[in-house]
Amino acid sequence: MNDLTRGAALAPEQASAGMDAFWMPFTANRQFKAAPRLLARAEGMHYYTPEGRQVLDAQAGLWCVNAGHCRKPIVDAIAQAAASLDFAPTFQMGHPMAFELAERLVALAGKPFDHVFFCNSGSEAVDSALKIALAWHRLRGEGQRTRLIGRERGYHGVGFGGISVGGIVGNRKMFGPLLPGVDHLPATFNLKEQAFSRGQPQWGAHLADELERIIALHDASTIAAVIVEPVAGSAGVLVPPVGYLERLREITSKHGILLIFDEVITGFGRIGKPFGWQRFGVIPDLVTTAKGINSGTVPLGAVFAREGIYDAFMQGPQGAIELAHGYTYSAHPLACAAALATLDVYRDEGLLTRAAELETCWEDALHSLKDVRNVIDIRNIGLMGAVELAPRPGAPGARAYEAHVKAFFEEDLLVRYTGDIVALSPPLIVSREQIDRIAAGLRSVLERID
């Protein structure tokens, strides 16, 4: 028996029939298949289980369904695209929707962003941005700038570039040495100093000065880019301290280092502006996006580049390929159609700023849970939130997992968990009444957990 067959022999006997073949991502497969949590359809703010239970979605699918589920204008646009242009290559060819979408996105971002590079996911957007940064320096005669700086507890997808600059140990430890020449800033979160902050914590701006130490260690002439999430979502909604992002921008600009914002979660209205950089008033050089770009309907990602980056590549023979990078499905017609329709919905319903309108209601609802047993912190910004629980001795993560399961089966509520953190990010169409229901359902669950 080899290692693969031995693993198969140990699969749980209680796994539901017909589920064995699917190797689920980021999931405890044996645990899930012993007690599946299945979703059969969705509409608006709700999922529906195969047996017909209505489940309130408090996590926007996976941080992505910003416009709500199965919105008719988006569904119709996808169907029409599938019937008229099922696929078109964007290597040496093009289709009108790709160019239209790029123009719409650049207009939404505004100056200084003037070009968009399409891919299929946040992971691909990150790897694309890192490659663009490295190539940009080389084209400018600074090819020695190859180092990349990420941040502890940062999540930048699952490509080799993304997990190299990312700082979540569980995503890195199984995959060898990863990319060379990568360093990491310290995480911005400190429970003692920041617990129960509403919005941006006051403590922590000085942590950005660690970048100066890293630069002194490696020399600025070797560093290509710094990449951070404006708000670290997957690590449990770690909101940047007041002044932190501004200081990063100051330091990177001083040393000629590109600053990349990973806005796969914060992009498209999640924190009250179309993009997080607009909320914080800090302009990066490259921005990675995905998820909310078309409300999670068809895989699509995009990298926004500020003025001058694209132009640096437009040199040499006119017939030469300027950037040897891309994906078969870059700017897929269905994904572009979905994105164009989604942007219309966002515009017509004011969804890109709705999180700002609901932020106080959301904040008050979450912080009302401060008195619940085992709650050690609550964090929020826009329509993002996290309730952190004290870990059980010897069983880290068990409390939040139990909250996730109980919320689904007992409160008809879908919440995300990461470690001992319950993370929340409802669709931007959420009502005030539904915000209250999310808080009440979570309270009921947490009060029943030891």
Automatic annotation (TrEMBL):
UniProt keyword annotation of Transferase present: yes
Enzyme class: transferase
EC number: 2.6.1.18
PANTHER family (UniProt xref): AMINOTRANSFERASE (PTHR43094), AMINOTRANSFERASE CLASS-III (PTHR43094:SF1)
Keyword Aminoacyl-tRNA synthetase set for record: no
Family according to the record: Belongs to the class-III pyridoxal-phosphate-dependent aminotransferase family.
Keyword annotations: Aminotransferase, Pyridoxal phosphate, Pyruvate, Transferase
PROSITE patterns per record: AA_TRANSFER_CLASS_3 (PS00600)
Pfam families from the UniProt entry: Aminotran_3
SUPFAM superfamilies: PLP-dependent transferases
Annotated protein name in UniProt: Beta-alanine--pyruvate transaminase
